[in-house]
Amino acid sequence: MRNTVRSTGLGALMKGAGLLTRFIPIPQPTLLVGPGSSGRLGQAIAGFGHRKILIVTDSVISKLGLLKGLTDALTAGGAQFVVFDEITPDAPIPLVQKGIDFYKDQGCDAIVAFGGGSSMDASKAIAVAASNPKPLNQLAGYLKGLRTPVKIYAVPTTAGTGSEVTVAAVISDPVNHKKLVIVDPRMVPKMAALDPSLMTGLPPHITAATGIDALTHAIEAFVGNWTTQYSDGMALSAVGLIFENLRTAYVDGKNLEAREKMSLASTYAGFAFTRANVGYVHAIAHQFGGLYHTPHGLANAIMLPLVLKYSHPAIVDRLALLAVAAKIGTEGEDKDELAQKFLDAVDQLNADLGIPTFLAALKESDIPALAKAACWEAHTGYPVPRYMSQKVCEDLIRKALPPKAAAAPAKKSKKAAASK
């Protein structure tokens, strides 16, 4: 009874917050799409008269020469730039601080985020902190910076995070083993290039995980309680594109058409969840990332089927619509059947992409703390469609235990039973 009352109260609070968020203006970047668009973005930026531009990326992208189209265009346009290519997965606070110091020391006045989610998030954090000089952990939360962040431009090299159009940056606190989320609509990049030619060399496992990351964004935005007509349209378009193209991009990484459509899907999903937010999949995935440094896309991919099955009773109508968008059913079919078809299709997509059904690093002893943190994150910020208690969340996370770890409690209980 107490959980029911609490869930009702949380649901009402989140719905109220959702009504307020509809009135928050969220800028949308100008999008350049297609092979070579990173060079076209460089041409545009060169004409904006920036004093010096900081390009934030990682060492692999730098060594592979993926920056060339952008940097050649900047040079041709007479723009000054420097490269900070030390970003690592999860964008830890000390590294982000190093980027902030580099930005200031070099006298920069704009940033190009070039890479995957970590480069995007680090760039946004640098942009906020450069304008608001205080510790990064004090900038976590909603609109904690009084001054407008410096201008950001974006070139995503994975089709997953959608960070090129979102209001949030997720960085990691390695001391406390948790993720920090900075939210500010003014962090949204001014322009973004969706250049599929930069994505053709992505390994299949990264293509898979980032693709399911985008799918998770779209689904959680669509089934939550902050939906709008706009977010629904973007989410459904993203789901359709992902089911149509992700397997192709995974098997044939050099397929430019599939890569371009996946980059669009990621961006559409970004538009959707920026307005409608996410849910328990992200809340749990953030804890996996903070404690185990699990790649965010992989953590989402493992938890998505489990959370969807838990939420199923509350979202049958929405799952049915997703099934139609994914072209695994038609509008005339029974809604319950369509909903089950979609759940089965997500399982099958994960299997086809080689996504594991468990998290190898997960430990039974960590589950209570992981569930507590995930519930706190979800219940204080996400419009989830069906609430769960900490106990339910623990049981759900437990389903992601590696086979041997999951079997261990059962062996113990048998031994205990035999001794009685």
What features would you describe in this structure?
This protein is of the alpha/beta class. It has helices at residues 2-21, 37-46, 59-64, 68-76, 93-105, 117-131, 136-139, 204-223, 229-251, 256-276, 280-292, 296-311, 316-325, 335-352, 367-381, 390-398, 403-419, and strands spanning 30-33, 53-56, 81-84, 110-115, 141-142, 151-156, 168-173, 178-183, 191-194. The strands form 2 sheets. It has a 6-stranded parallel β-sheet, with helices on both faces. Helix 9 packs antiparallel against helix 10 and helix 15 crosses helix 16 (390-398). The radius of gyration is 21 Å and the shape is globular. The two termini are 35 Å apart. Residues 1-14 and 410-420 have low confidence and may be disordered.
Short structural description:
This protein is of the alpha/beta class and 420 residues long.
Work out the number of β strands: 9
Helical amount among residues, as a percent range?
55-70%
Distance between the termini: 35 Å
Would you identify the regions where 5 or more consecutive residues have pLDDT less than 50?
1-14, 410-420
Outline the biggest β-sheet. 6 strands, parallel
Return the structural class: alpha/beta
The whole-angstrom Rg is 21 Å
The topology string of helices and strands comes to HEHEHHEHEHHEEEEEHHHHHHHHHH
Strand order of the largest sheet: 1-9-6-4-2-3
Total helices: the number is 17
Q: What is the strand content?
A: 5-15%
Overall 3D form: globular
Mean pLDDT: 92
